[in-house]
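Hi everyone, sorry if this is the wrong subforum. Our group has a chain we'd like a structural model of before ordering constructs, and none of us has done structure prediction before. Sequence below.
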Amino acid sequence: MPELPEVETVRRGLEPSLLGRRIKDVILRRPDLRSAFPKNFRQEISGQKVMKLERRGKYILAVLENGEGFGLHLGMSGRIKIQELSRDQDFGLHDHVIFVMEDGVKIIFNDPRRFGQLFKIGPHWDSEKPFAKMGPEPLGKNFLKTGFGVKLKNKKAPIKTALLDQNIVAGVGNIYACEALFDAGISPLKKAGAVSSTQTEKLVRAIQSVLNKAIKVGGSTLRDHRKTNGEMGYFQHYFSVYDREGKACPGCDCNIAKTGGIRRVVQAGRSTFYCPRKQK
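Answer:
Right subforum, don't worry. Here is the predicted structure as tokens:
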């Protein structure tokens, strides 16, 4: 599932075609994805100009000139394609939603597995589900001062599992939790409540560093993620530990034949990769 860097990459790719532009029409080629499309969605969105295009956690949010708008979640396999030609075209089997812009651009939501979501938001969307209880944005300037450390202290779960809890921090998923914990030198098996204040500060810096690096190269493409121009992300070429079981981690000076290199364990149903020598 796309994590924060992939979603932010898509949001930025959408800006030239969607932000400040008017939606002429919305074509819904099926009644639902993971859930049913909002009633009268086409009628309420058509004719509206997009005034803001934001990201909250793993969601993209478009705020319209009437103060309302819509939210988009890419799910497991969703991607956005931008067709800049004004001529008619044959849409693909999995092109489920098409936003037709006033200038002829078509923004296409393609989702083979149909785990994505398209829903309406109100003027106070940040107090609505699923955003009301969502944790702070990790790229915010005051991330450390938002109570992140306090939330960790109250968790008995391992720190890796805690980082996947969207009520603790928004947008961080499996890949970037593994990478940030490695950069911070913290074992993913360590109880969240046992992470010291010094380690928490290191973890905050590591999370922000890893996320920013990933955004810079368009996120990670392991299976489905593509930028809006169809290009792959490249952060998978910079993984330190994720999906590298048995290999040496960066700067390794140990005997891999004896240590076994990077290890993989399963936590809360997700694969965790880490170096037991460097992460304590």
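For your construct planning: Residues 197-216 form the longest helix (20 residues). The chain has two domains: 4-127, 143-274.
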